[in-house]
Amino acid sequence: MNLPQSSLRPKTSAKTYKVAELKVMKILNKIDSLKLSNSYIARLDIPKSSEKKVFGRKTSSYIVLVSIIISVLLFSARWIYTEFLESRHCLIELPSFSKSAFRPPEDCSMCLGVDDVVRLANITAEEFEDKYAYSTTPVIVTDATEGWRALKEFDFNFFANFYSESKMGKQINDCFYFAYKSGLKSLQEVFSMDEARANLSGQPWYVGWSTCYDDETRRLRSYYNRPYFLPKTAESDMVDWIFMGGPGQGAHMHVDSVKHISWQAQVRGHKQWQLAPPPECLYHCRWITFTVAPGEILVVDTNRWYHKTNVLPGDISITIGAEYD
Ligand SMILES: O=C(O)CCC(=O)C(=O)O
């Protein structure tokens, strides 16, 4: 039997062809040895080559290619999910100015008629909830830090020792750190600055950070209590914010994009705040300036009021605070 060799050769390597030829010869010899008549062979139900293959060579290549693409896409999706969504990182971190540029415009009712901070003492949680907890009026509560260990114990060395402890528990949040104009790139750098600078007699500095480990927050919270005036049902995240630094320093004017309103207790030093209405309300509302003294707690919606701080001459300023819902 003659084989149509020329139809096999062009796309097949010589070695593969030889092996195939030997196999076919073997099959043909076997058929010969069975002494089957040509008419019998013709009647055998042998599928034509195009029917026998479930997929042609071209189709198979497509399937392999599509499978590879799907695998790559699935792998990438899983990677994006674990890296960015599950761990709460952002795909693209927007610069802070763009966050304020993309916020929805205010209708100015948030600041109309708000001319000053309201100072309060001895207020019930119910009254605070009704009148202030979720309003845009900035409030200072003057009697909510009685008995706090933080007032006596928080100073630069307290935090330097606190953060020399490596066991902070499980990480539960992003660790935010703001260097402002200090040039100190991390908390490690803050707590390894020289003594003169730490005592505020060297280069000025001001920094802020959030807690991000569960034990870290829990241990800090043993130095202060949940402010008594907060609504009974309000919950705080396990995140505290600490701002610390010397006179003449503070945060630049900005607006936040955090989840909730926050309180901030002035533990040491005097800090001046300037609240500015959003730019679209500048002709309708007023700027407000006030000072928070040690032992006082400020409640302000920093997502809506633009704000800027400045530590007044004297002691180091240390504040601790948290958001509540
Ligand atoms: O306390 C400060 O100096 C800045 C606070 C601040 O910017 C904030 O809470 O968003």
From TrEMBL:
One molecular function GO term is: 2-oxoglutarate-dependent dioxygenase activity
Checking InterPro entries in the record gives: Cupin_8, JMJD6_ArgDemeth/LysHydrox
Q: Among its keywords, does the record have tRNA processing?
A: no
Sorted keywords for this record are:
Membrane, Transmembrane, Transmembrane helix
Q: Does the keyword Transmembrane helix apply?
A: yes
Residue stretches making up the Cupin-like domain: 126-280
Q: For this UniProt entry, which segments traverse the membrane?
A: 62-81
Q: SUPFAM superfamilies per the record?
A: Clavaminate synthase-like
Q: Which PANTHER family match?
A: ARGININE DEMETHYLASE AND LYSYL-HYDROXYLASE JMJD, CUPIN-LIKE DOMAIN-CONTAINING PROTEIN
Q: What is this protein called?
A: Cupin-like domain-containing protein
